[in-house]
Write a structure and sequence with these properties.
- The complex is a heterodimer of chains A (about 350) and B (about 160).
- Chain A is built from 13 helices and 2 strands.
- Chain A is mostly helical and about 350 residues long.
- Chain A starts with a helix and ends with a helix.
- The chains are: A mainly alpha (about 350), B mainly alpha (about 160).
- At the A-B interface, helix 4 and helix 5 of A face helix 2 and helix 3 of B.
Chain lengths: ~350, ~160
């Protein structure tokens, strides 16, 4: 049987991660506006609190107190279900990310700061990502609005298309580390980070991650020049807040996955020189630093590159990234089986 | 505890399947089917088949049902009247075939002796074990399936390709 203390440990971990995820996502909204301001030579939000640091709280309160509105002819249950699913799937991804090596001893066994070390961890991530479509699809359809429906259809076709290339691009990593377990993949990067072994795989994965999170240059589902607001056109109040917020949670989750798969997770140069306990603590900090860097990277791209046209997006997904990823699988497969 | 979880999941699966059939709104049917798939994935997890469970979710809930949802949305099948036929003979034949199918499946499950869940059951569902099984004992069926899939894919591309 599983020890009660282990269950408490895991539950506490889940609660802490939940709070951290929401905190980082909330401050990402502030950070995004600051980065945008910096890129465009403006000041950005600076009214709420010192340096505008209370802005996310002000935004949240504003969202909650806004008038609730439901369009006529919309489906009541599905209209509420849409943003809920979007938020739920966004929060589920980070459950398999290992935040530290196996160091914490409970009842004679060592545990890592990881909620679930399932042996198909990486597939779990893809499973959750593939479910992310539902929130947008249901939300867009139940709004009973043409623009919402178009946005939802765009979002889902885009996400399905890029999932394929995304899945193929990590096959070299699975071959290299001989495991689907997240902790094993991180451990295999003890000496060399995966980015140096699979640079092209990283590039494909990164582009697909942008498409999966619906971030610019792939934010066609909410393309305001064509679709008003895309799938969340009809949403108001905190339901809209959930849709917008889930994008930032997704960004945090995909940054965490990128850091774990390609940038060594909690590993950092000179890790073995430090005493074990200190190394674990610094490792957690380093992983968060990597994640925050990638969140910044997402924003950096957003305010640098303009949006694709829809046919260009499909062309890139199916005719450039997909074949490239397949070639990658063949090449690395040959390398790993013959050398 | 295991029994409780099993009956809970089984109940969800059955209710989901029934809602899939009886819902008046095609959208609810699709979503109920997704719920059924989740319950079934839960049952796979109980058998330590983690890989099968996750792949089940990715393939069925993540890809196939999304396409179903797509079709329902595009055709706007809001009312059930447009798809249900009132032909009684069709209903009888469908019912008969359904019962026959249930009979065959039930008999199949009844006569098959399932392997006992041994001590090293935790090892059974891992990708390594599954891969070894697929490429040793079941190589021929595996390859035949892949040929079938490729043929289907080529067929779909040929069918959807516009005339130049």
């Amino acid at each position: 049987m599983i020890l009660a203390s282990v269950i408490t440990f895991k539950l506490a971990l889940a609660a802490i991660l939940f709070v951290i995820t929401l905190g980082i996502a909330a401050y990402s909204t502030y950070f995004e506006r600051k980065v945008a301001a910096f890129m465009q030579d403006r000041i950005g939000p600076n009214r709420a609190g010192p340096l505008g640091l209370l802005q996310p709280i002000a935004d949240g309160v504003k969202m909650i107190f806004k008038e609730e509105h439901r369009p006529t002819g919309s489906n009541r249950i599905l209209f509420i279900l849409g943003p809920s699913i979007a938020m739920l799937t966004a929060l589920m991804t980070s459950a398999v990310i290992p935040w530290s090596p196996k160091y914490f001893e409970i009842g004679g066994q060592k545990y890592a700061l990881q909620i679930a070390d399932i042996n198909v961890g990486i597939l779990y991530v893809f499973g959750v990502v593939s479910l992310g479509v539902y929130g947008i699809l249901i939300g867009g359809w139940s709004s009973n609005n043409k623009y919402s429906l178009l946005g939802a259809v765009r979002a889902s076709s885009q996400m399905i298309s890029y999932e394929l290339a995304m899945g193929l691009s990590i096959i070299p990593i699975i071959l290299g580390s001989e495991s689907l377990q997240m902790s094993a993949i991180v451990e295999s990067q003890h000496e060399v980070w995966n980015i140096f072994k699979y640079p092209l795989g990283f590039l494909i994965f990164l582009i697909c991650a942008f498409a999966e999170t619906n971030r610019t240059p792939f934010d066609l589902p909410e393309c305001e020049t064509e679709l008003v607001g895309g799938y969340h056109t009809e949403y108001t109040s905190m339901k809209l807040g959930f849709f917008l917020f889930s994008e930032y949670v997704n960004m945090f989750a995909s940054s965490a996955v990128i850091s774990t798969l390609f940038f060594g997770g909690y590993h950092f140069p000179g890790m073995s020189l430090l005493p074990a306990g200190v190394a674990v603590l610094v490792g957690v900090g380093v992983l968060f630093a990597k994640i925050i860097f990638f969140i910044f990277f997402f924003m950096w791209i957003r305010w640098t590159i303009p949006r694709f046209r829809y046919d260009q997006l499909m062309h890139l997904g199916w005719q450039v990234l997909m074949p490239l990823a397949i070639i990658l699988v063949v090449v690395y497969g040959a390398i790993f089986s013959f050398i | 505890m295991e029994q409780v979880i099993f009956y809970g999941l089984a109940l969800i699966a059955i209710v989901g399947a029934l809602v899939t059939i009886f819902a008046r709104n095609a959208m609810y049917s699709v979503l109920a089917l997704v719920v059924t798939f989740f319950a079934m994935a839960g049952l796979y997890l109980q058998l330590n088949a983690e890989f099968v469970a996750v792949v089940h979710i990715i393939v069925y809930a993540g890809a196939i049902m999304v396409l179903f949802l797509f079709v329902v949305m595009m055709l706007n099948l809001n009312s059930v009247s447009s798809i249900v036929s009132n032909n009684t003979s069709v209903k009888w034949i469908a019912g008969l075939f359904g019962l026959a199918m249930a009979g065959i499946l039930g008999y199949g499950t009844y006569v098959t002796t399932l392997p006992a869940r041994g001590v090293n059951a935790a090892e059974n569902g891992t990708v390594k074990v599954l891969g070894k099984m697929l490429f040793n004992e079941y190589l021929l069926p595996f390859e035949l399936t892949s040929v079938l899939l490729i043929a289907t894919m080529v067929g779909v591309i040929v069918l959807t390709k516009k005339e130049e």
